[in-house]
Design goal:
14% strand, 23 strands, alpha/beta, six-stranded parallel β-sheet, 831 residues, ten-stranded mixed β-sheet, binds ligand GPK
Length: 831
């Protein structure tokens, strides 16, 4: 077993012995006999041993220093693989790679054995993961709190061009990094009714009775800070049935209840809902929300009370950040605990709660807003509902006072209205901070979506432009470029990305340009190999790699991209001699299982790929690749290999985007609309180093407010567009079923029962997009200038580190204390 910490000198022999020992005790095997998976487990346990030392030390130090702690409450943590990242943050990656090589083991193959922990859908869940990395690296006390889904985001297989969802049994081989903590189990109660009893002190006691309960068992995952010995905790909750009844004493009713409770426990953490930016209103989803929130809030309060005596000062040591509205029941749950368990008055409990909870909004898409029917909400969470009703009653009184006689204000702002509980309103009214995730997004919240709330409580509103961790998305994902950056500006960028601006002076340096393009080429070769292995498609690493990877959603407009590819293909067929720089269009995207147009778009991409990739008459100038099962682990390789970053959402719809930042960090040029954080990316790198096109968010919002536009005018007047659209319904890409893509055609041209024609302005932006794509091609032909722009993108990406984002959360919202660990063997300094 390892005895020293990796922060002290890495002991190679000790590590090798530890791996051999683990293979023996875990599997009764020698290294030669062990499978790849078993070697992965043995390596992971050897590293965990090191991490646990640091973990214990960190928690001991936190107990001593008692810093304020943030609980990042989130339904999703899209962590990605842990092993490589942990090694990076322990600053032990190269040493371990060497040690494994001594043993005849390739570290890449070992890393590749780990299933991606995919407890998230996309941007929102990955943001949570980046934030945890930054919090640990910057020395802030933090817990991530979430759900240990038995099945995470589904695995995607493509069969006959269609997406097939395959269950993600990520725990099949066990998760070596987690620790089960049964001593912190909590009971969570659902259903029943609330009775009021007056106790001996004359106080009202609210008791939930006739309920069903579930036992919540926490599993802890270590979150390793970079090079600082700090290890924070991601605490994810599993569900187990409560052991509840003695066999002799149960009658029929007890038996029924026991069975129901067991089913509840079995179902509740079974699977992640695979919806991104979409509210489905399922009862089980609300159960999941209350399940992990009740357990997390109970634990936060208990932990606080173990060391403090005055619950009225809870907010001085604890803050809850609500990652979207999904955890918003935390507000009422905290009120409940403060009043029912600690006997605070309403006003006392409210004073604490409103200084503890803060809310992040991640979207303005109407279909993503959580609005629970009263019937469902009150049946499942009767006590919580009472509390929300009272919050609502008091809030409405306040609105009436401030806007006398304005019924409309109440209709627009009430928390409970029209038979529904509006979770965003609850979060805004009951928290001390409301933030958007990019400047433009926050402005739209203030001026449009949340205007009434902004008017009434402007002091709560603030912007926190998203960020990403450079440790995973450059240092781990792109080791060649990371080394090159370090060679030019030193390695401070790893914990202070602003330092990467030192690269600017190399943008016009011919040698630097050549080195950069060479690294990009090698990364393209690496991705080409992956694509050949996984997709059986051969792509030319000398072509332009033009990439759109993100969840499939109509507002993200993958359809615009593929329609444009169809248009280019038509152009090439018309004129095979035309100037055309070879291009590889790469897509990666999962569609929500029930999202028809999204799934059909995947089929269209693959159908176009089939035709284009196999048409000898275009001489391989266009290749279209749909990468199966886009996930964090292959994303790291994809960003590293990209030349062009497609960020083409309908302006105003993408709250921020974070993939855009990962591409930029890896030296891809943005082809995008003025949406989300693209605005700030362009502000940093300069318009001349990006390709911007299309409607502005103001223009989009104006169209929306004044009845849209008529895509038929474009269809009638533009033969190129008309031809492409006709190809959706004339069998060009589906000769066996000419009606296959009719729904996509209809979405663009025919007003549907629930939506306008071309709601996302694809036809309106089509020609500007095609024109921007021509600029891309022209720019790429000038290799030196392209390299200059690419280097500048890397150099100007400093703002988009999640370290910067977290520091802003700390300064403006959380006010956490920075923790520095004393050097081992040193007495800690007095505070
Ligand atoms: C927003 F509302 C949601 C959601 O349900 N899921 C999700 O991933 C994303 N998001 C936004 O769509 C992105 O623009 C943003 O960068 C990301 O959240 C993180 O803030």
């Amino acid at each position: 077993m390892l005895k020293k910490t990796v922060l002290q000198k890495f002991d190679k022999e000790l590590f090798k012995n530890s791996v051999i020992y683990n293979v023996k005790t875990l599997y009764r095997k020698t290294l030669e006999e062990a499978t790849q998976q078993q070697i992965f487990q043995a390596v992971a346990y050897a590293i965990k041993d090191v991490i646990v030392d640091n973990w214990m030390n960190t928690q001991k130090e936190y107990a001593k220093q008692d810093p304020k702690t943030v609980y990042y409450l989130s339904m999703e943590f899209l962590m990605g693989r842990a092993l490589g990242n942990n090694l990076i943050n322990l600053q032990a990656y190269n040493d371990v790679a060497e040690a494994l090589e001594d043993l005849g083991i390739d570290i890449n193959l070992v890393e590749d054995q780990e299933p991606d922990p995919a407890l998230g859908n996309g941007g929102l869940g990955r943001l949570a993961a980046c934030f945890l990395d930054s919090l640990a690296t910057m020395g802030y006390s933090a817990y991530g709190c979430g759900i240990r889904y038995r099945y995470g985001m589904f695995k995607q297989e493509i069969r006959d061009g269609y997406q097939i969802e395959v269950p993600d049994n990520w725990l099949a081989d066990g998760n070596p990094f987690e620790l089960r903590r049964p001593e912190y189990a909590k009971e969570v109660k659902f259903g029943g009714y609330v009775n009021v009893y007056v106790d001996e002190n004359g106080r009202n006691n609210f008791k939930q009775e006739g309920y069903q309960s579930v036992k919540a068992i926490p599993y802890d995952m270590p979150i390793v800070g970079y090079g600082n010995g700090i290890v924070n905790t991601l605490r994810i909750w599993d569900a187990e049935p409560v052991e509840c009844f003695q066999l002799e004493s149960f009658d029929k009713g007890d038996y029924q209840k026991a069975v129901e409770q067991e089913n509840l426990a079995r179902n509740i953490v079974e699977v992640l809902y695979p919806n991104d930016n979409h509210y489905a209103g399922k009862e089980l989803r609300l159960k999941q929300q209350y399940f992990f929130i009740s357990a997390s809030v109970q634990e936060a309060v208990e932990k606080y009370m173990r060391k403090h005596d005055d619950i009225r000062k809870f907010h001085e040591k604890v803050t809850f950040q609500l990652n979207d509205t999904h955890p918003t029941v935390a507000i009422a749950e905290l009120m409940r605990i403060l009043m029912d368990d600690y006997y605070l008055t309403w006003d006392e409990a409210w004073a604490v709660t409103t200084k503890t909870c803060a809310y992040t909004n991640h979207t303005i898409m109407a279909e993503a807003l959580e609005k629970w029917p009263i019937e469902l909400f009150s049946r499942l969470l009767p006590r919580i509902y009472q509390i929300v009703e009272e919050i609502n009653r008091r809030f409405i009184a306040q609105v009436s006072q401030q806007y006398p006689g304005d019924q409309n204000k109440i209709a627009k702002m009430a928390i409970i209205y029209d038979g529904q509980v509006k979770m965003a309103h609850l979060a805004i009214v009951s928290g001390y901070s409301v933030n958007g995730v990019a400047r433009l997004h926050t402005e739209i919240l203030e001026k449009q979506e949340l205007r009434d709330f902004y008017e009434m409580m402007p002091e709560k509103f603030n912007n926190k432009t998203n960020g990403i961790t450079q440790r995973r998305f450059l240092l781990h994902g792109n080791p060649l470029l990371a080394q090159w950056v370090t060679d030019h500006v030193g390695n401070d960028w790893i914990t202070d990305l602003s330092k990467i601006s030192g690269l600017k002076i190399y943008a016009e340096d011919e040698k630097a340009q050549q080195e950069f393009m060479n690294i990009k080429y090698q990364n393209k070769v690496r991705l080409a190999r992956y694509i050949l292995e996984h997709n059986g498609v051969e792509v030319d690493p000398r072509s332009i790699f033009d990439v759109q990877v993100k969840r499939l959603h109509e507002y993200k407009r993958q359809l615009l991209n593929i329609l444009h590819i169809m248009y280019l293909y038509n152009e090439l067929k018309n004129n095979p001699q035309m100037e055309f720089y070879p291009r590889t269009f790469i897509f990666g995207a999962k569609a929500a299982a029930g999202y028809r147009n999204a799934k059909l778009t995947i089929k269209l991409i693959n159908a176009v790929a089939d035709v284009v990739n196999n048409d000898p008459s275009i001489g391989g100038k266009i290749k279209v690749v749909f990468i199966e099962d886009y996930k964090v682990s292959n994303a790291e390789w994809i960003f590293a290999a990209a030349d062009v970053s497609e960020q083409i959402s309908t302006a105003s719809k993408e709250a921020s985007g974070t993939g855009n930042m990962k591409f930029m960090l890896n030296g891809a040029l943005t082809l995008g609309t003025m949406d989300g954080a693209n605005v700030e990316i362009v502000e940093e790198v300069g318009m001349e180093n990006a390709f911007i096109f299309g409607l502005s968010s103001d223009e989009v919002i104006r169209f929306e407010n004044y009845g849209g536009y008529n895509p038929m005018d474009i269809f009638n007047n533009d033969p190129d567009i008309r031809r492409v659209l006709m190809q959706l319904i004339n069998g060009t890409f589906a000769p066996y079923d000419t009606e296959l893509f009719r729904p996509l055609y209809n979405s663009l041209l025919n007003t549907q029962s629930t939506s306008k024609a071309d709601m996302y302005f694809i036809l309106k932006d089509f020609k500007p997009y095609a024109e921007a794509q021509r600029r891309v091609e022209a720019a790429y032909r000038d290799e030196a200038n392209w390299a200059k722009s690419a280097i500048l993108n890397v150099a100007c990406s400093g703002k988009f580190s999640s370290d910067r984002t977290i520091q802003e959360y700390v300064d403006d919202i959380w006010h956490l204390d920075k923790v520095v660990l004393p050097k081992r063997g040193e007495k800690p300094k007095a505070k």
